[in-house]
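Our preliminary data section would be incomplete without showing what the modeling component actually yields. Below, a chain of 308 amino acids is followed by its predicted structure, encoded as tokens that our downstream tools consume directly.
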Amino acid sequence: MTQASTAQPRFEKGHVKVGLHRDNKKPVKLYYEKTGEGPIKLLLITGLGTPASGWDPVVEYFSKRPEYTIVAFDNRGAGYSDAPHGLYSTSQMAQDAVDLLDALGWHSDVNVAGISMGGMISLELIHAAPKRFSSLVLTSTNAGRSPPQLVTMAFFARVLTILDPHLRLKFITDHLYPKGWLDQAGPPESQFKTNRDFVTVTLQKQYIDIPMQPLHANVAQVWAALTHHVNPQRLAQIHASQIPILIVSGTEDQLVRHSASHYMQRHLNCRMSIFEGSGHIIPSERTMAYCALVEDLIRHGRDGQIET
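Predicted structure:
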């Protein structure tokens, strides 16, 4: 079993320019955070409107393991990254991630975990440059084969129209996490009475304490999520790359159909883990169990012993 380290991990943050040689457009500055200095590389890709800090519970887990280096970043249009005008696509944001990896010197053996829209970007990323990657975790996401649910469309529309950040935070909380879990006691050894208290403080760091996402950027990211589609042929190509893949989903996810996970699993012929009673943000809701799955996939993938 891997031993956790008590030493403070190395941390750096900054911006890199991406899109320098794409479509003759102005480069975009992408904000990233890099934690640790171990040989195992882990790239974390966030969902719609979420900054790098959305992965903080996972970063904290892996930062205690000295063999890891973890990178999380703000997609274009979110957090401290540039928010260029115009519509975005998941393939475009995947190319942003490739440019970031180039800037970091991460040219091979990269492990990827993506959540929600970040999972969509991850699929495009693996398809575009499969030889760079060692494993892939797809969390609360889909391949975009069918129109989104009405509840998903309503969620996006409401988020776009709530201008008060505190009301927006409450709305997001109620839709991303199951009510039963929110009402339960907070994490052990924490000062939080309930999980709702914990989530409120966590989301405040993501949606209030950083620059608010501009409306045009929110619309652009919503467009990217709604138009995302990795068809069966491309899923087959991803499967043919033989990269170990794990799909993670929750039975109480209000934004992504449970059937979407089974659809991807059939085409990717990969492992799948279903969290009973969990919602959309499993890495925060079930951090220890989620990270253990990620760690297991990385370990067995490196050993060449992964099973489907």
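DSSP finds twelve helices and eight strands in the chain. Residues 287-303 form the longest helix (17 residues). Preliminary results of this kind motivate Aim 1 of the renewal.
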